[in-house]
Amino acid sequence: MKLLEGKIALITGASRGIGRGIALKFAEQGASIAFTYLSSVEKGQELEKELQAFGIKAKGYRSDAADYKAAEELVNTVVADFGTIDILVNNAGITRDTLLMRMSEQQWDEVMNANLKSVFNVTKAVQKPMLKQRKGSIINMSSVVGIQGNAGQSNYAASKAGIIGFTKSVALELGSRNIRCNAIAPGFIETEMTAALDAKVVEGWRDNVPLKRGGTVDDVANATIFLASDMSAYITGQVINVCGGMLT
Ligand code: NAP
After folding, report:
1. How far, in Å, from the CA of 111 to the mean position of ligand 1?
2. Tens digit of pLDDT for each residue in 118-133?
3. Atom of ligand 1 nearest to the CA of 21
4. Which of 16, 73, 89 for mutating ligand 1's site (highest number of atoms within 8 Å of CB)?
5. Domain chopping of the chain, boundaries
6. What are the φ and ψ backbone dihedral angles of 161, each rounded to 5 degrees?
């Protein structure tokens, strides 16, 4: 028996990196998958075909998670196409790193909107079908940086810390309706987001991880499968650090 057989998942920001890895792992576990992308249109279309090759129902939608109305329309369309939504993975995110001294209002707002407001937008919309069916699992992608902070990432760290407060509050509000809400805090995961960083910085990070390597998208995807599946039926309001022991 596959862990997500019969479940319908919506994953935001799956054209690349961790979101893409989650979509592929979910497909392996038998879920039907709706996913979004924003600027990587071709990659989104390719992923749709790759997922369908697993023999599951899969569809990609171009949708800006930071846009309240668009998120509402997205969820309505997904429910019309798939019937309902059992699992929501709020994965979409960006960085606009710089020291506070140099940070513009635009850099602050872009990160807060793409990383934190997006989580509010899509979760609020997905509440409706989940309340109706009296079940659901919501998984929000935070970061260890949201717990311990990071110089040069005050906007990003604030957005990821905000996600944790939001996650715990939603877990308290919706627990009685059998809707669970948890967060994952990845540490240093090697994706395009980190490939843009200086090679020496990356080497230093690898060295500082107790498990002596950067994480892979599959490391994060495996934790996401656990939280999405009934294996975690008694877990809500929690943050799972997937960081090789970096935050211990
Ligand atoms: P990535 O490779 O840069 O991919 C980001 C994804 O988010 C892309 O698919 C992008 O879509 C999508 N996206 C961005 N803004 C969006 C929006 N407004 N609406 C819809 N989709 C949007 O990043 P990643 O490394 O996989 O990170 C994924 C998540 O994990 C993020 O929330 C990130 O903060 C978190 N995280 C990552 C790490 C790490 O080490 N990599 C560590 C901790 C937490 P398009 O390309 O189509 O625009």
Report:
1. 11
2. 999 999 999 999 999 9
3. 26
4. 16
5. 8-188+220-242
6. -70, -40
